[in-house]
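User: Just a sanity check before I run the rest of the batch. Below are the structure tokens for the first item. I only need the designed sequence back.
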């Protein structure tokens, strides 16, 4: 099916001319104001390209395209401007991320050419997004899974962090971005540079001595440096760099960003990390939340509130006992899986995958897995 095109103009004669010229070439829709265009978008309009006049009722074209950038980032944006609008066009570059400017009066054939170019750009954007959401995301998740299996004490916590962070994102009403899961699963990648005793003490909420604390303060920078070498990983790298930074400017790295200047991913990680550590130190969920409320200046208030809502209203899970051959992909381990002599194989919260099943199965064949295995399924799952 052809992609939808939205043209927003307030002049009936111009609108009619564009409709005659474009209707046979594109799946065209017309709007006469910015509000009407946004209403169409929110009613389910998945538009590949929007072309808007600068001068519209209620909001100008720059403001409209900036709103489209927020609510439909894959939509390619074209702006029609007059000679008197040159300075506004310069401002539009940063506000609306405009793909192309067209001078008015704009002949229909010029608009056709621009829309064709916009459709090509939209295809490129979608192809890149698919690459990020499948190939790259899958590779990063596989890397995280390997780390968690090689060192379940240190990296096994990422499964719980990922689940809780995605829950918070849902509470905030945000559209799931491709990078949320990889960020949560790779947030501890800098721990590869930490001594084992430091990883264990942090996971268990045991205070660090001065040398250990100094080493721990470097792990976000190590993780950020590793990820920054991968193309398109800059947003994840910045979030990992600031994951221990308090909303009030406390924490590390010292100085620099405060409040909303801190990347969203880092603010999400700060809340989930501190909550998980409090649980790891033996606090109940109620006690952990009370501690965080007392230290509320360290957290983005909207994210902390979302965590509280998530934890107090969390749906009950159906827990069942399964034999090893009965493990299936998608199940979530409800308890740690250990060997018969107590060595940790897979931390609870880890989602069962082919790799996890193979690891557990190999130890089970050698009669070296402590049974039973408990898995959790969401209610109704």
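Assistant: Here's the designed sequence for the first item:
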């Amino acid at each position: 099916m052809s992609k939808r095109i939205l043209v927003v103009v307030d002049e009936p004669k111009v609108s009619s001319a564009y409709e005659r010229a474009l209707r046979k070439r594109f799946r065209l829709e017309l709007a006469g104001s910015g509000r009407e265009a946004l209403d169409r978008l929110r009613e389910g309009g998945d538009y590949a390209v929007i072309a808007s006049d600068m001068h519209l009722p209620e909001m100008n074209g720059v403001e409209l395209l900036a709103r489209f950038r927020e609510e439909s980032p894959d939509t390619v944006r074209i702006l029609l401007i007059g000679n008197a609008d040159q300075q506004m066009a310069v401002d539009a570059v940063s506000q609306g991320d405009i793909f192309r400017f067209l001078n008015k009066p704009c002949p229909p054939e010029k608009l056709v050419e621009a829309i064709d170019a916009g459709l090509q750009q939209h295809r490129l954007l979608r192809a890149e997004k698919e690459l990020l959401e499948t190939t790259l995301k899958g590779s990063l998740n596989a890397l995280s899974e390997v780390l968690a299996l090689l060192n379940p004490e240190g990296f096994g916590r990422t499964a719980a962090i990922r689940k809780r962070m995605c829950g918070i994102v849902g509470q905030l009403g945000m559209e799931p971005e491709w990078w949320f899961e990889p960020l949560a699963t790779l947030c501890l990648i800098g721990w590869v540079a930490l001594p084992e005793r430091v990883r264990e003490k942090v996971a268990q909420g045991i205070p660090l001595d001065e040398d250990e604390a100094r080493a721990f303060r470097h792990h976000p920078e190590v993780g950020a440096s590793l990820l920054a070498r991968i193309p398109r990983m800059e947003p994840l790298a910045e979030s990992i760099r600031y994951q221990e930074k308090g909303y009030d400017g406390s924490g590390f790295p010292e100085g620099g960003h405060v409040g909303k200047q801190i990347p969203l991913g880092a603010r999400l990680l700060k809340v989930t990390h501190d909550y998980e550590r409090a649980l790891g130190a033996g606090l109940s969920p109620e006690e952990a939340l009370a501690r965080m409320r007392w230290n509320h200046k360290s957290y983005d208030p909207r994210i902390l509130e979302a965590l509280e809502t998530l934890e107090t209203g969390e749906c009950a899970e159906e827990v069942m006992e399964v034999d090893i051959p009965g493990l299936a992909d998608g199940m979530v381990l409800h308890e740690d899986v250990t060997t018969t002599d107590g060595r940790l194989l897979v931390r609870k919260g880890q989602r069962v995958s082919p790799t996890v099943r193979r690891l557990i199965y190999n130890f089970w064949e050698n009669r070296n897995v402590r049974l039973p295995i408990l898995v959790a399924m969401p209610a109704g799952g």
